């Protein structure tokens, strides 16, 4: 379930990525002319509304293709036709006819069905998920010969229409009940004053994932229950200090709180993901601050880090309640962004709107510290902190032309090893491929090194090791696919095109200040240079420079400040990345991958923030020795291009956590 939710969160980013464009066009349009009478304003507004008015379609397509296992376009088509089925059957005209309402004054169509249109996100998400599930289950279905044309992927859109027809039949009766229940709830809390305003603010955010917040908004913002908060505010017909109470409290959150949350998400991202996270969060923060369009930011953590969204809803309720309690009122035409704040500032119904800015500063601090605490405390998967999935096309591996660089590397290894005729078994440890071959004498070592290997070790006639680095798992998975014929070898043109694309994609980094930090002994014992480690892969610095300690006990500590990037399944190694981007491998013992984790107890998990000297594991040295393995605790800096200098003290006895040198990043 956790993996499913995380895939859902990542899939949502596809349609969400279109929202900043909508916010930009609509925000500029409202700034030029909030009534959109001006032809330029009207044109820009309609341009942005192309997206916001069809959000349901975008979510149906985005979720369908994002959740499909192979991301094939047939899944997107299934999502689209499924959504069109729902909006057709549950639209006001057809739904009214099915239920016996002709739309006349005597027999009006229930208002719930007016909300079923192309912008309905709830039905978009529901349809996308159902379409993806159908695609994953039936994409390889083979029908009888007479119906063979409709086999496989062609079958899925047909099934999607049928499935959503059944869902629509159920919703024909359930949807009005849900819609009306929310409307009645809204009317019930109107008499609760500022507390009721707070409840409204809370449920307004809580219902956004379902799309039902519009039903609740109609009660408070328009003339359904006699409140008409937006209309009365702009017409000046309301009560001074009261009218606008269901709008004012949104400003401190959308203009200050959520941008601060975006900053917290960026600060908590993994170092290697901060650049991408920064771009996403800046765009989302600008959208909510300038225009009040908060969906791009909210959807980025709504599912993967749902506890944060609950807290966000609570904070929104507090903000709306407090502004109403203080009688600080304002209003908006579109949403609570800077544009509407400026336009509403001089409204005769605006009561101390400048105090909303003061409240906004408080909300910003609250959001930043609460989000930072929760993300780190509960290791929430906000953007930039997602788990890497080797089976997910949305992972962090650079891709071009449909093939990632690890597949290209594996393809070249496969050919240099002699293909499937020579390669028999693919295995790997923390940093190297461990291969069984028919004849190690025929492999092309030069080609393997030219493909990116740090080194090649011929163990025996039928055993070979290729040193790759901490990303070896990606290469091993692809190599096994080539060996088992699950993937066809690449053509030379595809391989060359991929390498060129990867080289072109490498960003030119601007100069940054170097960072120097202390490194400490990971355990008690004798400090030795890495050249003295009794494994030539480490001793020859194939993986990078570093140092080691020959331990006298099994208390293992973090060698420096950083964040856990990887805990290997066999528990014998931990990957750490520093804030300056240094990638560090803490390797416990020599060849201990073969012990399958038995001698080790790891006390940290991926995403944990470490301080130098913090206990990360316990190792049973006696068990390691009894298995005939070395016990050296090795620290390696695997991305040597980021290391400006590494200074390690001379050999000698050290205490665990004792400073033994320093490392400086470029």
TrEMBL record:
PANTHER family in alphabetical order: CYTOCHROME C-TYPE SYNTHESIS PROTEIN AND PTS TRANSMEMBRANE COMPONENT, PTS SYSTEM N-ACETYLGLUCOSAMINE-SPECIFIC EIICBA COMPONENT
Subcellular location, record wording: Cell membrane
Protein name per its UniProtKB record: N-acetylglucosamine-specific PTS system IIABC component
Species name: Bifidobacterium bohemicum DSM 22767
UniProt keyword list: Cell membrane, Kinase, Membrane, Phosphotransferase system, Sugar transport, Transferase, Transmembrane, Transmembrane helix, Transport
Chain ranges of the PTS EIIB type-1 domain: 407-489
Chain ranges of the PTS EIIA type-1 domain: 535-639
Membrane topology reported for the UniProt record: Multi-pass membrane protein
Catalytic residues as annotated in Swiss-Prot or TrEMBL: 429 (phosphocysteine intermediate)
Domain of life: Bacteria
InterPro entries: Dup_hybrid_motif, Glu_permease_IIB, PTrfase_EIIB_Cys, PTS_EIIA_1_perm, PTS_EIIC, PTS_EIIC_1, PTS_Glucose_EIICBA, PTS_IIB_1
Assigned EC number: 2.7.1.69
Gene Ontology process terms (BP): N-acetylglucosamine transport; phosphoenolpyruvate-dependent sugar phosphotransferase system
């Amino acid at each position: 379930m956790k993996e499913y939710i995380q895939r859902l969160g990542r899939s949502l980013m596809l349609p969400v990525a279109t929202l900043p464009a909508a916010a930009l066009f609509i925000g500029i349009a409202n700034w030029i002319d909030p009534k959109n009478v001006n032809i330029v304003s009207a044109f820009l507004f309609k341009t942005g509304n192309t997206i916001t008015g069809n959000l349901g379609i975008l979510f149906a397509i985005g979720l369908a293709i994002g959740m499909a296992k192979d991301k094939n376009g047939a899944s997107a088509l299934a999502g689209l036709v499924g959504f069109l089925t729902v909006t057709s059957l549950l639209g006001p005209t057809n739904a009214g006819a099915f239920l016996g309402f002709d739309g006349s004054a005597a027999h009006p169509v229930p208002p719930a069905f007016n909300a079923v249109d192309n912008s309905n996100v709830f039905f978009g998400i529901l349809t996308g998920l159902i379409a993806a599930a159908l695609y994953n289950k039936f994409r390889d279905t083979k029908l009888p010969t007479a119906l063979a044309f409709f086999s496989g992927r062609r079958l899925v859109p047909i099934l999607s229409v049928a499935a959503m027809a059944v869902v629509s039949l159920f919703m024909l009766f359930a949807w009005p009940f849900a819609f009306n229940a929310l409307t009645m709830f809204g009317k019930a809390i109107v008499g609760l004053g500022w507390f009721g305003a707070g409840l409204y603010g809370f449920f307004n955010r809580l219902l956004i994932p379902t799309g039902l917040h519009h039903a609740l908004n109609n009660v408070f913002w328009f003339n359904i229950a006699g409140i008409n908060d937006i209309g009365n505010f702009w017409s000046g017909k309301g009560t001074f200090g009261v009218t606008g109470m269901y709008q004012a409290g949104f400003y401190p959150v959308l203009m200050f709180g959520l941008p601060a949350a975006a900053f917290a998400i960026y600060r908590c991202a993994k170092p290697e993901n901060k650049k991408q996270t920064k771009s996403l969060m800046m765009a989302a923060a600008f959208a909510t601050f300038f225009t009040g369009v908060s969906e791009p930011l909210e959807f980025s953590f709504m599912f993967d880090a749902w506890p944060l969204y609950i807290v966000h809803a609570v904070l929104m309720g507090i903000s709306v309640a407090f502004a109403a309690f203080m009688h600080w009122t304002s209003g908006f035409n579109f949403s609570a962004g800077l544009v509407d704040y400026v336009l509403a500032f001089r409204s005769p119904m605006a009561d101390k709107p400048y105090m909303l800015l003061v409240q906004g500063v408080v909300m910003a601090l609250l959001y930043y510290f609460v989000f930072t605490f929760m993300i780190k405390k509960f290791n929430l998967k906000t953007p930039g902190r997602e788990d890497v999935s080797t089976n997910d096309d949305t992972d962090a591996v650079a891709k071009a032309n449909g093939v990632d660089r690890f597949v290209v590397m594996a393809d070249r290894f496969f050919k240099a090893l002699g293909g499937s005729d020579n390669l028999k078994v693919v295995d790997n440890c923390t940093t190297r491929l461990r291969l069984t071959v028919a004849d190690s004498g025929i492999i092309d070592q030069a080609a393997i090194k030219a493909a990116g290997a740090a080194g090649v070790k011929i163990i025996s006639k039928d055993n070979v090791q290729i040193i790759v680095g901490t990303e070896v798992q990606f290469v091993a998975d692809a190599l096994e696919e080539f060996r088992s014929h699950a993937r066809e070898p690449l053509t030379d043109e595809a391989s060359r095109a991929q390498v060129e694309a990867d080289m072109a994609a490498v960003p030119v980094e601007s100069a940054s200040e170097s960072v120097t930090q202390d490194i400490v002994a990971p355990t008690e014992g004798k400090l030795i240079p890495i050249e003295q480690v009794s494994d030539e892969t480490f001793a020859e610095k194939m993986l990078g420079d570093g140092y080691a300690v020959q331990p006298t006990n099994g208390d293992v500590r973090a060698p420096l400040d950083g964040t856990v990037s990887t805990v290997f399944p066999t528990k014998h190694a931990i990957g750490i990345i520093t804030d300056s981007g240094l990638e560090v491998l803490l390797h416990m013992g020599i060849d201990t991958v073969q012990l399958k984790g038995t001698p080790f107890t790891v006390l940290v998990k991926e995403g944990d923030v470490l301080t130098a000297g913090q206990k990360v594991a316990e190792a049973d040295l006696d068990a390691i020795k009894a298995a005939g393995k070395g016990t050296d605790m090795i620290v390696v800096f695997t991305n040597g291009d980021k290391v400006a200098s590494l200074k390690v003290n001379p050999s000698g006895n050290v205490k665990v956590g004792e400073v033994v040198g320093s490392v400086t990043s470029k």
